Every structure is written in structure tokens, then in C-alpha cells.
Amino acid sequence: MAFPKFWNSDSKQIRKSSDSLYSSLAAASLRPDLYEQGAAIDSFEGRAAMITVHATLVLGRLRRINTTRARKIAERLNTTVLDQFDAAYRETGVGDSSIARKVRKLAEVHYGLGKALTEAVYNSGEDSTGAVVACIQRNALSEAGRERLLALYLLHNRHRLDALDDDTVLAGDFDWALPADDEPSST
Asked: How far apart are CA 58 and CA 165, in angstroms?
């Protein structure tokens, strides 16, 4: 007798990895210092955009692993992001009749921003900072004049993700950091 898919230990590990990656990126998306410095905009849409930009980096790294397991983790992670957008609208008290429309719009922004940011972060060659800043400006992700802060943060974490071995990423182990967090202290 075959066991149902949800009893499969590989499925459990995929769920665990995806949940860990989502928890990490959600916490990083709400870092107060990003909002205090103006690198992120403190609104419902601004916070959703921060989820998207963090998810874009993780999904990009998973895509470069290019295994069935990585694709399954990425698929589950993307589904979790969209499910959490829905849950966030429900928590704000948005009426049931308008939730589907609002989540659909947020999903369209998520996919569009993810595509634009992926192009800027991964396919812009030597001037990736300029490309990421331009993407952030076009999408109004930061306060005016603060786009470079977010770009440097994202590129810093992209390089940190790239430096991890595939197994660590697939296990869902990643801690986000501001560029200054990785600098040795002078004490």
C-alpha cells in the first residue's frame, strides 16, 4: 500500500525548508531599521513589497540550484507568500467580497516586481547596483533618495545567499543582514 504524498518524508522536508525560508524573509521584511532609514515604505503595500523583494532573492537562489527539490521548495514558498498576502488582508478587516480582487492585484504586483527585480539583480552585469536602484525607483519601494540603501542591502544579501552551499539553502537556513552587520567590530 502506498502512503499518501503528505506522509512522504521528502514532502515534510520541503515544507519545513520552505516554511523556514518564509519565516526568515518575513522577519527580515519587517526589520525596523529598513523603515526607519527610509529604505522601505511603512505601509501595507510597502511591507508586501518588502516580502516580494526578499522572496525574489530566495527564489532566484533556488532557481540556480536547479533540482526538483529546489523547484518544489520554490513553488511552496511562492504559494506561502500569496497565502500570507490573503491572510494579511483578512487581518486588516477587509471585506470578504473584495479580498480576492485585492489579493489578485497584490499577486500581479508580486510577479511583476519579482520579474523586474530578478532582471536587475541577476542579469544586469557589472552595474547591478545602478540597475537595482533604478528598479527600486521605478517601483517606488523606498523613500525618495533612499533607494541606494535598499539596493545595497539586497545585493549584500544576494551575495551572502550565493556564498551558501546548496544544501544549506535547501535546508532553509539563511539569516538576513544589513551590510554593516557583517563588518567586524572595532572593539
From this structure: 13
Query: How confident is the model at residue 51, as a pLDDT?
Result: 97
The Cα–Cα gap between 123 and 6 comes to 37
Choose among 129, 156, 127: nearest CA to 34: 156
Whole-angstrom distance, CA of residue 89 vs CA of residue 4: 33
CB-CB contact of 11 with 17 (8 Å): no
Residues 146 and 151: their CA atoms lie apart, in Å, by 9
Determine contact, residues 98/40, Cβ cutoff 8 Å: no
pTM, two decimals, is: 0.87
- Label residues 72-90 b or e (16+ Cβ within 10 Å = b): bbbebbbebbeeebbebbe
Do you know the residue count of the chain? 187
pLDDT of residue 154: 96
pLDDT, tens digit (0-9, with 9 covering 90-100), for 159-184: 999 999 999 999 999 999 998 766 54
Q: Which residue has the cell 539553502?
A: 169
Please check whether residue 53 is in contact with residue 117, taking contact to mean a CB–CB distance below 8 angstroms: yes
